[in-house]
Amino acid sequence: MSLPSLRLLAGRVVPALLLAQAAFLPLQSASADEHSAHPCRSSAGCGSVVVAPVSQAAPDHGPCTSPEPVVCLIRSETPQEREVARDQRMRYHRLLEDMERKECAMRAEGRSEEDIARTLSRMRNEAKDVVRAGMTPEQVAELEARNQKKYGNPLGPTPDQLYLKYGSWEKVTEAATRSSEVVDHELGLEFHHCPCEVLQAA
Fold first, then answer.
1. Can you name the residues that pair with 179 across neighbouring β-strands?
2. Distance CA 123, CA 105 (A)
3. Is pLDDT of 35 > 60?
4. What HEC string does 88-146 produce?
5. Looking at residue 190, what DSSP letter applies?
6. How would you classify the pairing of strands 47-50 and 189-192?
């Protein structure tokens, strides 16, 4: 897809990608103050961490130097739109914490690696489905067509596809709770995984 086409989709696709799994979370904005008060962040330096201000550069309409399409779309946004994108990304990080908390609970119950991996993968895909429920039919069709072409599944890769890709259920679980470092960096964020004892105390 050409860069002009990507820009045309930016206002519709970026929020869905960045909010990807935020449907399980409260609807209020996740501010930096709110995050600094979270036990996971304050006591262990984990979770969503602000490491730099949002770029105030004007929208970049030139050739994108990043191989990551989402980064290109963020760079084409205004500073105000990037602030919204970062807020959405922080909410996405909070869902990753919820997924890690679920993983910790399942491990404490003695659940198998396959059960854990399938549960976390399902959480991601179910959240995508909920987010898309608030989009127009045309927007949903665009996203689903892309995933259908890439994975043969409109919601993205299935647990079995991920198992074939990574070779173990442990790696599927790791992939389910992974945050793109390049996207996080573009928004002045880092995501640090939380130890189970911190997550369970939060």
1. none
2. 15
3. no
4. HHHHHHHHHHHHHHHHHHHHHCCCCHHHHHHHHHHHHHHHHHHHHCCCCHHHHHHHHHH
5. E
6. antiparallel
Residue with tokens 């919204």: 84
Mean pLDDT of the chain: 78
The Cα 173–Cα 98 span in angstroms is: 13
Report pTM. Answer: 0.72
First and final CA of the chain: distance in angstroms? Answer: 43
Rounded to the nearest 10°, the torsion over CA 10, 193, 191, 129 is 10
Three-state DSSP class for residue 148 = helix
What does the pLDDT read at residue 69?
Answer: 81
- Residues composing the chain: 202
Nearest Cα to Cα of residue 195 among 115, 97, 54:
97
Neighbouring CB atoms inside 10 A of 56's CB total 10
Percent of the chain exceeding pLDDT 90 equals: 36
